Structure to design on (466 residues):
């Protein structure tokens, strides 16, 4: 319902030392009309030009502190609020590649009243100098 | 004074709220400006600290709504039975979660709680003593493709009757009265590649009230429909036109209505949902409660145009005023002197 808005392309940035970035980060909103506890965010699949990063390369932080996706599975006391940006960190040697690239994100959410998971997909063109 | 009150669910402004263009008070202020003074909230959407609300926060909410001359009508609860990946919530945990919502609902001074349709009737039966004590009506959302006489919905009615309670019943979502296929749906599927002639076939099949599975088979197999065409045909599974006359039979079981809509015409008519029949039935049986706007059109148009939820809701309320007045005139002249 909010797919086209879930990546904020203006927030893509490198992480780690300026001269030797070890990853990148960007802000994302939950593609759902209410907040969810983190245990119900099953996957955050990040890709560049169709190449999807490994699950353990991803960290998530809604503002309280970074977590791996495995840690999120049992995080029942933290909530990703409706419309609130959270940060996704991606481990990626050298940081975000320079030039024009397509950044993709798929959020897989476990919604109790739905018989199947909810998939929310966005892609944005990123020009990184 | 009409028995039917007008209101708005904050769900209607999800696009603008998600994007940070409107806050909750903007929504309430707008609702007041069109005379839709009943406010339905989704605490898990509208209250960032949910489920933790201090007494001060509760007071601020009440004061904010009152400042605009509005009042709360309904509280939309959720139940995360799949909170854990590998183990469903136990029955006791489900009851505990629902009681948590009943308690917050009561603290906010709200009398109607919208219960998700998938919640088991026997679980709700266990919650009835709490609902009675807190004086909150638990209304199971009758949402398409369920309808008023679906066997699953009748289980809740039977549970309420068995317990002899006035605090358990239903809460109809008007999406069950889809008389015509929404033009906004069709337009988006055509943008996604549905051929106009196939889209017309699907619309015609819906108009003729042909059972969805026939149309899906025709489109998917016989016409070799593309992805958008098959997806459009599959929406028919969730596009029932239930009989609005049945509302009168179940009127004692609901006090609030989610007035679902997808798009309003410029002349303030709804191209899809049978509000004329619905409001005639409600006035005819003397139903008392709130018609609460639930605009859900944003997801069908946001790929091509700006969403203006306020204008859509405004048009729906112009229609409500017109239809309520017409039905009241009709039914008052029908009554014996």
């Amino acid at each position: 319902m909010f797919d086209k808005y879930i990546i904020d392309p203006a927030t893509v940035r490198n992480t780690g030392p300026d001269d030797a970035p070890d990853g990148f980060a960007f802000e994302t909103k939950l593609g759902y009309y209410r907040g969810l506890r983190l245990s119900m965010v099953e996957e955050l699949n990040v890709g560049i030009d169709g190449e999807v990063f490994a699950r353990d390369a991803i960290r998530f932080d809604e503002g309280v502190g970074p977590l791996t996706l495995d840690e999120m599975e049992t995080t029942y006391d933290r909530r990703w609020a409706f419309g609130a940006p959270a940060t996704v960190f991606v481990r990626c040697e050298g940081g975000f590649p320079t030039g024009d690239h397509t950044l993709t994100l798929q959020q897989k959410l476990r919604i109790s009243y739905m018989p199947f998971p909810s998939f929310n997909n966005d892609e944005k063109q990123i020009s990184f100098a | 004074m009409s028995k039917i009150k007008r209101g708005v669910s904050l769900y209607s402004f999800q696009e603008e709220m998600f994007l940070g263009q409107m806050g909750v008070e903007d929504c309430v202020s707008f609702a007041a400006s069109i005379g839709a003074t009943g406010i339905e909230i989704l605490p898990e959407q509208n209250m960032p600290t949910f489920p933790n609300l201090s007494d001060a926060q509760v007071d601020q909410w009440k004061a904010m709504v009152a400042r605009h001359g509005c009042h709360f009508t309904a509280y939309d609860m959720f139940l995360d039975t799949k909170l854990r990946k590998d183990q469903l919530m136990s029955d006791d945990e489900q009851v505990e979660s629902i009681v948590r919502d009943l308690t917050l609902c009561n603290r906010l001074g709200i009398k109607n709680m919208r219960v998700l349709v998938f919640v088991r009737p026997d679980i709700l039966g266990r919650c009835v003593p709490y609902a009675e004590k807190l004086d909150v009506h638990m209304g199971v959302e009758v949402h398409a493709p369920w309808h008023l006489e679906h066997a699953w919905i009748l289980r809740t009615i039977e549970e309420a009757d068995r317990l002899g309670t006035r605090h358990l019943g239903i809460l109809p979502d008007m999406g069950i009265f889809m008389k015509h296929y929404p033009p906004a749906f069709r337009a988006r599927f055509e943008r996604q590649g549905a051929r106009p002639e196939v889209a017309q076939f699907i619309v015609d099949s819906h108009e003729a009230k042909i059972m969805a599975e026939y149309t899906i088979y025709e489109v998917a197999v016989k016409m070799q429909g593309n992805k958008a065409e098959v997806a459009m045909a599959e929406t028919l599974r969730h596009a029932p036109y239930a009989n609005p006359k049945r509302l009168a039979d179940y009127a004692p079981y609901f006090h609030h209505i989610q007035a679902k809509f997808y798009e309003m015409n410029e002349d303030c008519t709804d191209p899809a949902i049978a509000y004329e029949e619905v409001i005639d039935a409600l006035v005819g049986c003397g139903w008392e409660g709130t018609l609460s706007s639930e605009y859900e059109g944003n997801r069908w148009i946001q790929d091509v145009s700006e969403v203006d939820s306020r204008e859509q809701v405004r048009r729906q309320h112009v229609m409500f005023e017109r239809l309520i007045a017409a039905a009241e005139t009709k039914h008052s002249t029908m009554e014996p002197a």
User: Anything to note?
Assistant: Residues 69-72 of chain A form the longest helix (4 residues). The mean pLDDT of chain A is 97.
